[in-house]
Amino acid sequence: MRVDANELQRFFRPKSVAVVGASVKEGTVGRALIENLIERFRGRIYPVNIKYDEVLGLKCFKSCRDLPEPPDLVVVAVPARVVPKVIDECGSIGSRAAVVISAGFREIGGEGAKLEEAVVKMARKHGMRVIGPNCLGIYSPSVGLDTIFNPSDRQGKPDAGPVAFISQSGALGAAVLDWFTEAGLGMSKFVSYGNAADVKEYELIEFLADDEETKVITAYLEGVEDGRKFSESLRYAAGRGKPVIILKAGKSVKGAKAVSSHTGSMAGSYRVYESAIKQFGGLLVDELSELVIAAKALSWLPTPRGDRVAIVTNGGGAGVLATDAVEKYGMRMAELTDDTQKALRNELPSAAAVGNPVDVLGDAPPERYRKALKWVIKDPNVDALVVIGIMQSPAFDPEGFIEVLREASSGVSKPVVIAAPGGEYTSDKISKIEKLLHLPAFKTPEEAVRALSYLMRWRKVVERFGKG
Amino acid sequence: MRVDANELQRFFRPKSVAVVGASVKEGTVGRALIENLIERFRGRIYPVNIKYDEVLGLKCFKSCRDLPEPPDLVVVAVPARVVPKVIDECGSIGSRAAVVISAGFREIGGEGAKLEEAVVKMARKHGMRVIGPNCLGIYSPSVGLDTIFNPSDRQGKPDAGPVAFISQSGALGAAVLDWFTEAGLGMSKFVSYGNAADVKEYELIEFLADDEETKVITAYLEGVEDGRKFSESLRYAAGRGKPVIILKAGKSVKGAKAVSSHTGSMAGSYRVYESAIKQFGGLLVDELSELVIAAKALSWLPTPRGDRVAIVTNGGGAGVLATDAVEKYGMRMAELTDDTQKALRNELPSAAAVGNPVDVLGDAPPERYRKALKWVIKDPNVDALVVIGIMQSPAFDPEGFIEVLREASSGVSKPVVIAAPGGEYTSDKISKIEKLLHLPAFKTPEEAVRALSYLMRWRKVVERFGKG
Prior knowledge:
2 copies of one chain form a homodimer. By secondary structure, chain A is α/β, with parallel strands linked by helices.
């Protein structure tokens, strides 16, 4: 571990949390924070606000100095000008970790930048680490720690699971968190790190690379301050077998300009990022939707041994589209062995195509998929599999299809992805497949193949850096 | 009109339809066809089957020769070997249009190819036009004509509307039809033309280019026989102000091989298609999902005057991603006029960004969007607009947002698209926006910008070919 594990661990496994700026007022951040903690946090909760004696049934303290113990974590949601003093007080009683949610720092320039410097100075004085300011903070479901103050009816929060997500942008972070929830992705830790006045993205990446709960790291970045340390954190994660999937915003000239008016950070040259991320074993994605697709693929599927893809379909056209996508994303169509082709020829109807794509035909019942998948998945020339179900066909049986997929994918170290183009009926079955089997399922053949492509890219990283 | 309008019109506005191969048996194509017609078709229906006197309450005829009138359209669902005789009989009594759903023709080679030749020969003999064989046939909602025999619980069919879709693949056609339904796209005509033994895709394109119900033509193609006539049909459609959105499968070497084992057609060189489609005014898309996105954009939105895009957002990060996408898709970020920027500076909070992207900030209520949109949409430097709503924020009011979008987009000849990243809550609001306002709404800023990019491409076609 290159970063001090204990230093950052404090943020994610606190036994006690103080909320400075706790409130009873409806619609305030200070109230939402206390509500979230009461609902799920398993440690001690200390509201701090000079105005109250009690907040939502908990004793409220006038100042950090009045607390019965130094809280492991302090969450700060008070006006910016007060924050340096709060940090100083908390530090002086022995707290060593703070999340500063308050905005009004470097992102507004001038006076704000000075306040931010003061915060960092106070933190350094006490050996305290600070996440933020100007952020949404932390979500750590395994311990019920949750500083994301958006209303629960509109802000989904994933169950505990293997995907970590760090975001420089709070709002976009919240949106992705919400999307991950809908996508059924389990989450280890989420960190909205905002201005990164103290704790930097590279420290979080290295911490997560060593975190046992985390299998896959995702990140939304606008700019990093120290390119060398950032690159090294990627290499460190790669060496620890943890893929780091990165969406870098501010790729274009105007986008970089928009970054500087958003977080005040320097977007820098995208080409430089691109080549550094590639060289040091990160997985760069181009669009927001890819964060979700790549996270699904890398957290749900095994890493393939090679880049040879087989396709089994009940629709010729969708099979062709998948085939085109295999080439587009730099993989190869598997050449099925003679044995496989002979077996398929024996077991499938004569009109079926037994090359790759294998076409089990539009009238295929589950049994025909079973026969095809049985042979194709054990073919030594096949590294990964795309299974296509055109579900409008009267012969298609979704329950049977799911059973066949379960059999075919269980106990196999080859990734299987699903494509099923269609409308409401199909959308519903796609959700079921993902929920029941944790196999990524998509509306288009191209997306399914794209999901595999992240695994192929990760395989190459593993080959270079070991582990995985 | 280059193709004989009356010839193809017969298929889409028949007053009488015969179904050869009508059946009472559950689960047969022959029964589903009669059921569909009874449910929605407004003309006369003639079941034909030597085995029955009655099918689902309708008098059934032993042969076409026994019919009381030559039906305007004959739908054929009998074994392939019988089809030439059926065509001959129907032709001899005076029918001039047949849809042959039956498979077992050129796509199986040898004997099948001969049967197909026989079908064409019989059709020519009687001056009859034939769609198919090996197809799903026709869906023409304005007259309730529907030969798509998939079960209605799993096969969505769009309401009447401006989008036409032709598909060489039946299964993929059905899947896209289903998807269009879920996407809320209205449909003028759907044709699954299968082997195109007689009626070719270029004839359908020219017919649809003149069809008053059709505003946008979408097509899934694997290969065309006559490249020159195909190209000319695109130019014809462009000249008539009808965008033709084309997904061409069989782009890769292996994909082209898969095409030949699917429909038996020649995929040809993708580069040749690419340059021909571009040159003759078609809009080529790369993936299945783009058919849907492009159809939405082109059927719901006005054509912009130029390529200058403005972004209004309540989240900085999403604004940056949209900005990056504007450059990626070859458009430009609008430079807002001084007047607009001054007005925004006056009316928005001081922390708001009044350049482009305009950031109304995370705590923006609808009123703030209203102020921003009012100025941005009338800015003479703005040709198109992306509005981003991060809906997790407690301040975000979806009902108010929808109202503001309605005001901003009504009576304006500038296209407006929406992006709202998130989970279930957001997905629900996205559906509402699309349904209530017919503004394309997406989960990612990139997709929203991509939707605009099809309009920009279409604008260039219009500039070259006139109309639009």
